[in-house]
Amino acid sequence: MKQRKYLTRHEINQILNATAFGVHPERDACLFRLCFYHGLRVSELCGLRLTDLDIHQKIIYIRRLKNGLSTTHPLTQEVLPALQAWLEARRAYQGNALPWLFLSQKSRALSRQQVYGLLRRYGEMANLGIHPHPHMLRHACGYALADLGVDTRLIQDYLGHRNIKHTVIYTASNAQRFYGVWDK
């Protein structure tokens, strides 16, 4: 059987709940919230800088990789409290003067490998029964947006896809998009 390429909203909530029992609960909760709600690739997540944030205007600049379209996203109530809690906790970290949003215990930017390890550990703590990896959060974002009825072109822009072919996977399996077609 082929392994799923995304996490469900329920599984993401289980992971987020598990972060409360981790060594760095504020950082890890913020990390995975940002990754899911903004559809970030792990390298985009690790590359976030403090200067990419504007807390007062409640926006974040997303620098897309793989020739994607970089853009600015709003910081919503699903993310903002976790981000503020992490920024407060981050002040006590060694290396807090570094430009990176997410720091490791060794006063460096959090690495891709560390994020993979953290997500796997929290997946085990949450008893998911699958081995989650960060790209599953990006896919979960696309599927969640499609489930909410968001237009395919908007999902394309939100995820930074240049080619719509990379976006239609999220909407193609969503039967909800057909409801109301004949109600005109």
What string, H for helix and E for strand, traces the elements in order?
HHHEEEHHHHH
Helix content: 40-55%
**From the alpha-carbon coordinates, what is the Rg to the nearest angstrom?**
17 Å
Q: CATH topology, what is it called?
A: hpI Integrase, Chain A
CATH architecture: Orthogonal Bundle
Whole-number total of structural domains: 1
CATH superfamily: Intergrase catalytic core
Strand content: 5-15%
**Number of separate helices:** 8
Could you describe the largest sheet, including whether it forms a barrel? Answer: 3 strands, antiparallel
By CATH reckoning, the class would read Mainly Alpha
Total strands: 3
Overall mean pLDDT score?
92
Distance between the termini: 41 Å
**Low-pLDDT residue spans:** none
Quick one: overall form? globular
What order do the strands of the largest sheet run in, or round the barrel if closed?
Answer: 1-2-3
Structural class, judged by helices and strands? mainly alpha
